[in-house]
Amino acid sequence: MSKTIEKIIVGVLVIFIFGIGSFVIAGLGDSQPKVMSSDAQYISLEQAKTIALSTTEGVITEAVLEKKNGVSVYTIEITKDNQETEITINPADGSVLSTETDTEEEITREDINSIQKTMTESKAGEIALSRVPGTVINIDIEKENGKILYNVEVRDGNGIAEIEIDAETGAVLEVEREDDDEEDE
Question: Do 113 and 151 fall into the same domain?
Answer without folding.
Answer: yes
